[in-house]
Amino acid sequence: MKTPRSLARTPLTITSAATFVSSTLTVGSAGAGFVDLTREIEGFVEDAAGADGFVLLFCRHTSASLTIQENADPSVLDDLTTALDRLAPVDAGWTHRTEGPDDMPAHAKTMLTATALQIPVMNGKLALGVWQAIYLIEHRTRPHRREIVMQFVGTTR
Predict the structure, then answer these.
(1) Average pLDDT over the chain, rounded to an integer
(2) Which residues have a Cβ under 8 Å from the Cβ of 76 and sit 6 or more positions away?
(3) CB under 8 Å to 5, separation ≥6 — which residues?
(4) Which region, left, alpha or beta, applies to residue 53 given φ > 0 means left and ψ of -120 to 50 means alpha?
(5) Does residue 17 have a pLDDT over 70?
């Protein structure tokens, strides 16, 4: 095991989570791909007057998912789409085809990613890294309406 070259920790912030704010975001996807939700989530924290706490996001579907990924180079999202398509190809011999040939691969891709995310909020801002964004991943080829439940838990300004 290697020893880290340096470690540092900020002072503790103590918060009493007395505020819960909820809203549902409806997203119209254009078909398979990534939809950047970061600005919408930032707006939700602003509207909730969030100071310190966290945002919980929950995708209410089994053929779409959520992720935090790089937002600087669009080829990252292209490569991630390729990776998911390789892990769950349409032509893999799936038996579930009730809603079309892309439905079962979409379920598998959702299982491999996430339907819920938790993002810290510090001083009223999402504690994302410089190159991070929050994405809905639509796994179906046709456009769909997706619902994301958003909850802020923490203190307010």
Answers:
(1) 95
(2) 69, 70
(3) none
(4) left
(5) no
Q: What is the pTM of this model?
A: 0.90
Cα 111 from chain centroid? Answer: 14
CATH class of 19-156: mainly beta
CB atoms within 10 A of CB 77: 19
Give the phi and the psi of residue 103 in degrees, each rounded to 5.
-70, -50
Calpha distance 79→75 (Å, rounded): 6
Instruction: Yes or no: say if 115 and 20 are a contact pair by the CB < 8 Å rule.
Output: no
What are 149's two structure tokens? 């439940």
Question: What pLDDT does 14 receive?
Answer: 73
